[in-house]
Specification:
Elements lengths: L9 H14 L3 E6 L2 E7 L2 E7 L5 H10 L5 E7 L8 H12 L3 E8 L2 E8 L6 H7 L1 H13 L17 H16 L4 H6 L7 H7 L5 E5 L2 E4 L1 H7 L3 H12 L15
Parallel strand pairs: 3-4, 4-5
Antiparallel strand pairs: 1-2, 2-3, 5-6, 7-8
Helix pairs in contact: 6-10
Amino acid sequence: MNNSNKKMLEEELWSPVNEFLIDQGYTVRSEVKYCDISAVKDNELIVVELKRSLSVDLLVQAVNRQKIADSVYIAVPKPQKMIGNSKWKNICHLIRRLELGLILVSFNDDKAFIEIPIHPETFDRKKSQQINKKKRTNIIKEINERNGDYNIGGSKGRKLVTAYRESSIFIACCLELFGPLSPKKLRELGTDPKKTTSILSKNFYGWFKNIEKGLYDLSEEGKKELKDYEKLAHYYYKRINNINTKESNGDTKSCD
């Protein structure tokens, strides 16, 4: 009978892990000083903590075992669906970050299978940062390109004000104040010199409309959406009104 999906008890994890360590030449003892499994070989002490699932409590328990053991593993049933997805990858990163090992136990036709995807080893934080250097650069770039903090940390279901959205709002404010403008004129008003044309042509938010070649205006959707960003729009209206420009296709609005 295939019982790989059956909910395993901690005691059921014990036997295959215990036998695996014995096969590796370790002297194994169970429940020594509150450690689920303790194994010794050549004066190297390994501790394994058994649990039915990964949890913060398990990680805390395992980290505490690092005070006494050379290596600490956590042993859990192998997840049926999680392996390979982003959540699982993040969990594995945390386990590596804590310098723990991971043992996965599964059963098929009453035969146990042991997998060890992670062994305890020193975590190289500098190497990790080097691998993720592009992500770090993108975060710093995004911070520097935003003009203020218009989001609420931890919020869900809200439209985030990204640097791209800020640039789009800036363009929308210019069109709202002056009417139809060309990308060149928008850049003269201070919009992003590299992104303005792309933002208008791609029209990701549906805020703009191309009324003729090289001339753009604000769509009805854009006018409606702009009201949702009153604080940021006010900032850009003031910024635009401070620019000395004699050319205008429409009346400017007061910022007061």
